[in-house]
Design a protein that fits this description.
Length: 278
Amino acid sequence: MKLVNGYDLMKFAKKYGYVLPAFNTTNLEMTYAIANGLMEANLPGYIQISSNNLRLSNPEVIAGIARDAVKKSETPIGLHLDHGRSFADVKACVDAGFTSIMIDMSHLPFEENVRESKRAAEYCHFYGIPVEVELGALRGKEEDIVDESGCKTDPDMVESYVEGTGCDVLAVSVGNVHGLCLNPEIDIPLLSRIHEVSKVPLVLHGGSGIPKEVIWEAKKHGLIKINYGSDLRREYIRTFGEAYEANHNEHDVIHLSIDAVKNVADRVKELVMMINEH
Ligand code: G3H
Ligand code: ZN
């Protein structure tokens, strides 16, 4: 199968009642692992990469690997830019063949956030690609970016934000935290209020550590996509770390890389099945 357009992927999810997981990649191994995990579960989702990670693997490289990784897939898989931090990154990813885009201007004051997000949305829409935007900021750590300025999404701003940006999906801050935070306090009543006023479906970032029951509940309040990053990265690093702990002279990169792909794929499979159990 080809990488699937983001609109088609969301249509598919809505039709069959799925929540779409979006798994963060950094490199070749993580990308194959994510595709393998989704294919083994035979459930839809996204491979996604953040602007931050594009410092290592540029959009063309990741798009090439992702296309290869999904070619035997019988379940729809999209390629998404996560936390797009500039118009240049958005453009480079669209041009490289990404099928879904996030522009994250949540650190900016409201008017600027709207203006910059809208600019990206117009570019993506010209190419038939949906756009995720973010209102409210998340606490926690996204790799080397630490943000302690968490402020929850204000439901009173949602309608004009969605309208003003022309977005297709909205990432919200409702107590979700980036990083390996166990059991974050997700404010379901707030999510529900946002859902009531939002014309577009909602996204939860910071999926690692959110209990499954909370995700199933969030599903009833407009959740269509949930992001997982740290959980998979820990699995990847654990594979190499344990081998090194056992033998400081370990130097078998190929076997360890194959093991890492398997371990990350197993975790992907577990997570996508878990969120769609109900
Ligand atoms: O955008 C990426 C995610 O929000 C990842 O969050 O590392 O807490 O799973 P996480
Ligand atoms: Zn995120």
